[in-house]
């Protein structure tokens, strides 16, 4: 069954590339008046490779942001290398200034920033107030910020930004201590 689907995907991808090349040639010829060079070879990924699994549009945007390099990122390959570790251990070991804070009776788990000292770490009655990192999962804002449900092996990508670099769609007033975006694997 998977081979049949892979064959269809290859046929669709090949057709898409052929149409795109034809459109490009026609556009170039219309603008320059000259025919463009014919492309004989088109690279299409091997459909038996498990690394070329389908990705969601959101994960495609993750990849674009990762290549721009404005934040800190964990790819699916990196997450799979650490799939047996708790999510909080993985993010605290890879993202600067991220620490874990446990809620009442260890029922909830929050991510806090150690880098928000000037902005979010206010002093109340002599105690430092935690600077909570805002959390989004698959594009949904997690209102209470609890990350105890996240499992490393279920994720395809994780990205972390300081307040200044948080992508516009994820900016909220509560994001002054940083933003974590987690994306699930496509199953």
Name the descriptors:
two-stranded antiparallel sheet, 187 residues, 9 strands, 30% helix, alpha+beta, disordered N terminus, globular
How does this structure look, described?
The protein is globular and about 50 Å long. About 30% of the residues lie in helices and about 20% in strands. A five-stranded mixed β-sheet has the order 1-8-9-6-7. The protein has a two-stranded antiparallel sheet with strand order 2-3. By secondary structure, the protein is α+β, with helices and mostly antiparallel strands. The protein has helices spanning about 1-30, 55-70, 75-80, 85-95, and strands at about 70-75, 100, 110-115, 125, 125-130, 135, 140, 155-160, 180-185. The protein contains four helices and nine strands, in the order ααβααββββββββ.
